[in-house]
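Input C-alpha cells:
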C-alpha cells in the first residue's frame, strides 16, 4: 500500500474546541501521527453537541468525534511540573506542536517557544489565537461571535434589502475556528517544508481575526477603492441576483446578463409584464426590484426546486438549489464521489461524517481510527516513554493524567 502523504510526521495538539483540532485533523487524515493532549477533565468540545438522542455524553459529541479522527488521545496537566516533564519528553520526537491556548494562558501551560525550542530545536510550534501575539488586542478574550464581528463578516451576513432592522449576523457553529484551523494547517506544513532546507524549526502565530479578514474578497476593496463601506443591506446595482422560494425549497437566481434574462423569461412563459420599460435592462431591473422581485416570487412559488433547476440549466440560466443538510446527505453527486465516511465509534456505533477534503492519486486518505475516548491511549503513548503502568496509575491519582 502506498504511503500516506504525511506518513512519518509526528504532531502534538493541545487546547480546546475547533481551531487546533481541525488543523491537526486535516493532517492526521493525511497520515500524520497526531497525539492529542487533553486536560484531565477533557477538551471543551466534548461538552458541545449534537449528541445521539439529545443526551449529553462526553464520549458522544458529534462535534468532538468529527474533529478528532485518526488521533491518539492522552490526558495531561500541563500546569503541573511533572506534566511539563512528560510534555517535554513527548516533544523531543515531535515535528510540530499546534495549540490554541489563549496568549494569557500560554505561560501557565508552559507554551513558551524559546524554552521549548531548547528541548527540540527542529520542531515547529503553531499558536492559534484570537488576535495574534502582538498588538494592543493580543490579550483580548474572544468567542466565535466576537471574532466573526472582529473579522468584518457579520456585517456582510444576513438578510438583504428590507432587513435594515436586523443586527449583524454570524453563521452557525464555530466557523471562525475552522477558518483559523485551515490557515494553521497550511502555515504549519509550509514551515515543515522549509525545515527540509534550514534544518531549524520556528514559531508560527495565527490571528483568527486576520484569517477572517483575508476572505472578505472584493467587499474589502470597496473602501480603499471607493471609500464605501460594504454591507449586506441596500439595493444591488444589477438584478435578478437573489433568493426566491419555491413550493418545496429555495433557489438562488443569478441571471444578470441579457441573454440569461431572456432565457429565464422564456422559461416563465413570457408573461406580459416583462415588456414594461422599468424592466428593460439589468440596471432598471435592479432600480425597480421592489416591483420585479414580488412578480418573480409569485411565479417561482408554484415551481419545484429540482424541476426549475433543470429547466433553467437546459437554457443556460445560472440557478442553484439551496441545499439543506438532509439534501446534502442524499446528494447523488457526493455519494458517487464517496464524500461521506462511515465511522464506527465504540460509544456511538456507526455514524456518517464528512470525509476526504482532498483526493490524492498515489497517497491514500483514510480513516484509520475514530476519535479517542478520554485518555484512551495514555498507556500506549506514555509507555513509549518508558513509563510503567504503576507510574501512570500514580500520576492518575495525582490528577496529572
Amino acid at each position: 500500500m502506498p504511503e500516506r502523504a504525511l506518513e512519518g510526521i509526528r504532531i502534538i495538539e493541545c487546547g480546546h474546541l475547533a481551531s487546533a483540532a481541525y488543523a491537526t485533523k486535516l493532517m492526521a487524515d493525511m497520515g500524520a501521527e497526531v497525539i492529542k493532549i487533553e486536560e484531565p477533565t477533557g477538551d471543551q468540545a466534548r461538552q458541545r453537541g449534537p449528541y445521539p438522542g439529545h443526551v449529553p455524553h462526553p464520549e458522544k459529541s458529534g462535534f468532538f468525534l468529527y474533529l478528532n479522527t485518526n488521533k491518539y488521545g492522552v490526558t495531561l496537566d500541563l500546569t503541573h511540573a511533572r506534566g511539563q516533564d512528560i510534555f517535554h519528553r513527548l516533544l523531543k520526537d515531535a515535528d510540530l506542536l499546534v495549540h490554541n491556548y489563549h496568549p494569557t494562558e500560554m505561560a501557565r501551560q508552559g507554551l513558551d517557544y524559546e524554552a521549548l525550542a531548547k528541548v527540540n530545536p527542529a520542531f515547529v510550534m503553531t499558536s492559534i489565537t484570537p488576535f495574534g501575539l502582538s498588538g494592543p488586542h493580543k490579550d483580548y478574550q474572544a468567542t466565535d461571535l466576537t471574532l466573526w464581528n472582529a473579522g468584518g463578516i457579520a456585517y456582510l451576513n444576513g438578510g438583504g434589502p428590507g432587513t435594515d432592522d436586523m443586527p449583524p449576523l454570524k453563521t452557525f457553529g464555530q466557523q471562525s475556528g475552522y477558518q483559523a484551523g485551515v490557515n494553521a494547517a497550511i502555515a504549519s506544513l509550509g514551515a515543515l517544508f522549509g525545515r527540509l532546507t534550514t534544518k531549524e524549526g520556528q514559531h508560527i502565530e495565527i490571528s483568527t481575526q486576520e484569517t477572517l479578514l483575508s476572505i472578505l474578497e472584493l467587499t474589502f476593496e470597496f473602501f480603499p477603492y471607493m471609500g464605501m463601506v460594504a454591507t449586506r443591506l441596500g439595493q444591488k446595482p444589477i438584478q435578478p441576483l437573489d433568493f426566491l422560494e419555491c413550493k418545496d425549497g429555495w433557489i438562488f437566481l443569478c441571471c444578470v446578463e441579457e441573454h440569461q434574462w431572456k432565457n429565464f423569461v422564456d422559461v416563465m412563459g413570457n408573461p406580459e409584464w416583462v415588456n414594461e420599460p422599468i424592466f428593460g435592462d439589468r440596471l432598471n431591473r435592479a432600480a425597480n426590484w421592489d416591483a420585479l422581485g414580488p412578480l418573480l416570487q409569485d411565479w417561482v412559488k408554484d415551481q419545484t426546486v429540482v424541476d426549475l433547476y433543470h429547466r433553467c440549466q437546459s437554457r443556460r440560466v445560472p440557478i442553484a438549489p439551496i441545499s439543506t443538510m438532509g439534501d446534502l446527505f442524499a446528494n447523488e453527486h457526493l455519494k458517487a464521489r464517496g464524500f461521506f465516511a462511515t465511522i464506527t465509534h465504540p460509544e456511538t456505533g456507526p455514524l456518517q461524517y464528512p470525509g476526504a477534503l482532498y483526493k490524492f492519486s498515489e497517497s491514500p486518505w483514510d480513516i484509520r481510527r475514530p476519535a479517542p475516548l478520554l485518555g484512551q491511549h495514555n498507556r500506549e503513548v506514555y509507555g513509549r516513554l518508558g513509563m510503567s503502568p504503576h507510574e501512570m496509575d500514580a500520576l492518575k491519582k495525582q490528577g496529572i493524567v
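The chain has two domains: 10-215+339-397, 241-327. The mean pLDDT is 90.
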